[in-house]
Design a protein that fits this description.
The protein contains eight helices and 37 strands. By secondary structure, the chain is α/β, with parallel strands linked by helices. The protein folds into two domains: 230 residues, Spore Coat Polysaccharide Biosynthesis Protein SpsA, Chain A (Alpha-Beta Complex); 209 residues, Hexapeptide repeat proteins (UDP N-Acetylglucosamine Acyltransferase, domain 1), CATH 2.160.10. Strand 4, helix 2 and strand 5 form a beta-alpha-beta unit. It is elongated and about 110 Å long. The termini are far apart. The relative contact order is 0.07. The structure holds uridine-diphosphate-N-acetylglucosamine (UD1) and calcium ion. The site of uridine-diphosphate-N-acetylglucosamine has 27 residues, from strand 1, helix 3 and strand 10.
């Protein structure tokens, strides 16, 4: 049972995600809004998966089809809650798949920062009890359900006082509102008990809802003890209801990722101006300037510098690479020793071999640039197979599209393409060929020869510029 929780019970997870999310003012269900490039609910699903849960049930309501389509995950058990009658009612929609002998962990789809570590501690805190709650101590507990602990116990440490019940803010007396320990909503319950207690929950409260939190009182009445674990980092239990909270937790999440990278030795010029929306693997001496966005799956080698305002998406970057400011690089491979930018764009399926150079205002699409070749200024290179040590002059364009089809350009080793040349594909430039500046070529150019296609330069004697008649 390596990596599994202390208890020998199976773990089943229920994620509540049927809420409307009215305060997002969006046509998209709340749980699909993204944090670090990933839907909120996906963060929760991923945490559940990290715990090796036996099953994960997702209770959906509003925009359910959208959630299903976006997550596209057949390993989840999808449970529809047609009407949102409260958290207890929501869990009820998912009990069918729950085994009596399981530990059932209940999570919220809009609480994305909860860590695996915290969840493991909660499961450990449950121990052999019938249930355990994840709670938090907040300076401002307003809005949350309050944890009421056994008042008869004279011990002042709250952990020693057993949880008696949870009272929702809307149902709370002034005295209870003063309690600063709140219910995170996350709990773990024995499968059999969960089913028994859910059946007994009523909706006799201010909101007329079936409260999952009423479980606690039922448990206590039956002589069970509710254990609890107080979260160390309150951000972990924060839910998202509006765009302000979404932005706040986005920054929190980014800060954590930044700290994690810096701990591994990555230099971030300003961790507050760094965004990772995916996963990154880094070598030694990687230095990242401000406003860099890294998306998807990226791999970066040793001794790599990334300039300000650069975006990398699904990139593989070798060692000793320098990427200057304002580049957009996507789904491409950059080998050792390359120099890129500023203002360069690599579009998908591009491969730069060792020591290639791609300079400013250069766009490269679906092309292979072999060792040591240089495209230094103002060029478009598309669908091109380029040899080694080629020099592409400023303003060279591969005309790869005829309006209907894309065609390939081949350029041999050591070719030299003069500035402002248009290569009309399909075309092949032989190795060692030199192309005169300003040429438009639509036929192959032979190896080791000079080819050009511009009109010969003329001078006309006696020519006068037109002048205006007064
Ligand atoms: C709930 C808790 C409260 C706790 C707080 C923490 C109850 C009765 N109260 O209150 O003690 O402090 O969370 O944030 O449980 N949902 C459904 N179907 C429903 C109702 C809710 O799926 O019918 C989902 C929501 O999408 C959300 C979660 O359950 O993910 C919590 O619902 P919400 O209405 O935000 O709970 P609170 O009233 O804030
Ligand atoms: Ca509510």
């Amino acid at each position: 049972m390596k990596g599994k929780i202390m208890s020998n019970k199976q773990l089943q997870v229920i994620i509540l995600a049927a809420g409307k999310g009215t305060r997002m003012y969006s046509s998209m269900p709340k749980v699909l809004h993204e944090l670090a490039g990933k839907p909120l609910v996906q963060h929760v699903v991923d945490s559940a998966k990290a715990l090796n849960a036996e099953s994960i049930s997702l209770v959906y309501g509003h925009g359910g089809e959208q959630v299903k389509n976006k997550l596209d995950d057949e390993t989840l058990i999808w449970c529809e809650q047609k009407e949102q009658l409260g958290t207890g009612h929501a869990v009820q929609q998912a009990v069918e798949a729950i085994n009596d002998t399981s530990n059932v962990l209940i999570l919220y789809g809009d609480v994305p920062l909860l860590s695996k570590d915290t969840l493991e501690k909660l499961l450990k805190a449950k121990d052999k009890q019938a249930l355990a709650l994840l709670t938090a101590n907040l300076d401002n507990p307003a809005g949350y359900g309050r944890i009421v602990r056994n008042s008869e116990n004279k011990d002042n440490s709250i952990v020693e006082k057993k949880v008696e019940k949870i009272v929702e803010e809307k149902d709370a007396s002034e005295a209870i509102k003063k309690i600063t320990e709140v219910n995170s909503g996350v709990m773990v319950v024995n499968g059999d008990k969960l089913k028994q207690w859910l059946a007994k929950i009523g909706n006799n409260n201010v909101q007329g809802e079936y409260y999952l939190t009423d479980l606690i009182e039922l448990a206590v009445k039956e002589g069970e003890t509710g254990n609890s674990y107080i979260v160390e980092d309150n951000k972990e239990i924060e839910g998202i209801n509006n765009k302000i909270q979404l932005a706040d937790l986005e920054r929190e999440y980014q800060k954590r990722q930044a700290v994690n990278l810096m701990t591994k030795g990555v230099t971030l010029r300003d961790p507050l101006r760094f965004d990772l929306r995916g996963e990154i693997e880094t070598g030694q001496d990687v230095s990242i300037d401000i406003n860099v966005i890294i998306e998807g799956q990226c791999k970066i080698g040793n001794n790599v510098k990334i300039g300000a305002n650069t975006i990398l998406k699904d990139m593989t970057i070798g060692d000793n690479v320098e990427i200057l400011e304002n580049c957009i690089l996507e789904k491409s491979i950059v080998s050792n020793g390359c120099l890129i930018g500023p203002f360069a764009r690599l579009r998908p399926d591009t491969q730069l071999d060792e020591n290639a150079k791609v300079g400013n205002f250069v766009e490269i699409k679906k092309s292979h640039i072999a060792k040591g070749s240089k495209v230094s200024h103002l060029s478009y290179i598309g669908d091109t197979e380029m040899g080694e040590n080629v020099n592409i002059g400023a303003g060279t364009i591969t005309c790869n599209y005829d309006g209907a089809y894309k065609h390939v350009t081949k350029i041999g080793d050591n070719a030299f393409i003069g500035s402002n040349t248009a290569l009309v594909a399909p075309i092949e430039i032989g190795s060692g060929a030199t192309i005169g500046a300003g040429s438009t070529l639509n036929k192959n150019a032979e190896a080791d020869k000079l080819t050009f296609s511009r009109a010969a330069q003329k001078t006309i004697d006696g020519w006068k510029r037109p002048t205006k008649i007064k």
